[in-house]
Amino acid sequence: MRLVGAQLAQLRRNAGLTQERLAERVNAEYDTIASIEQGRRPLKRELAVQLDEVLNTGGVLTIAVDNMPEMDKYPIWAAEFVDREAEAVAISWFENQVLPGLLQTEDYARAVFRSRVPVLSEEEIEQNVAARVERHEILRRKQPPTASFVISEAVLMDRLGGEKVWRETVKHLIECSQLPGVSLQVMPFGRETHAGLNGPFIVLETPDHELIAYMETQRGSQLVSDADEVSILAQKYAMLRTQALTPEESRSLLLRLLGEA
Question: Which stretches in the chain have pLDDT values below 50?
Answer without folding.
Answer: 71, 261
